[in-house]
Amino acid sequence: MEALRIISDEHQSLAGILHAVRFMLKEVAAGRLEPDLKLFKAMVHYLEAYAELRHHPKEDVLFKYLEQRTAEGKEVLEKLAVQHREAPQRIAALEQALAAFTADPSAFAGFALAFERYADFYRNHILIEEDIAFPLLRQHLSDADWETVDREFRAEMQANSGKDGKHEDFSALFSKLVECAPAPLGFGPRPFND
Ligand SMILES: [Fe+2]
Ligand SMILES: [Fe+2]
User: Fold this and answer.
1) Could you tell me the pLDDT band of residue 11, with boundaries at 50, 70 and 90?
2) 102 alpha carbon to ligand 2 midpoint, in Å?
């Protein structure tokens, strides 16, 4: 079940980023923190490129196995599949709000609201996966399924690790985000530089 551990770890990282952005937005709104547009931009990029484009496809693989083993949870899997497919619209709304805020500081509230919506959505999405889909995976996938899917996940992680210089190194980006995010969630505030 290494695949499930990888997905759970990714949920924790993503929840951490969502929490950090929320915290920063509250601090900015209260006048206690200067907004770091580069940091916000990097975090939105992480959400798009990692949460939406690398994380969900791995889950789709897992859920395909489940579909083949049982009809249980069919509706939930359909709902999750739709939510995965809607990633481009979700990210576009966030990027538009950030672009508006970048162009005009008075658009901060719009960005904060767009982010709040995104974070609410994502938190619920994770809850559905962890509370409903994961227990079904544990229950219905065979040892042989886990062996195959674990191997697929290991290959995916290795091929896209970013250590080859051809793919983005998301673990390095995550560490950089955490370094720049304000305490107590991160080790900053520190200006984010590309
Ligand atoms: Fe997902
Ligand atoms: Fe997920």
Assistant:
1) very high
2) 29
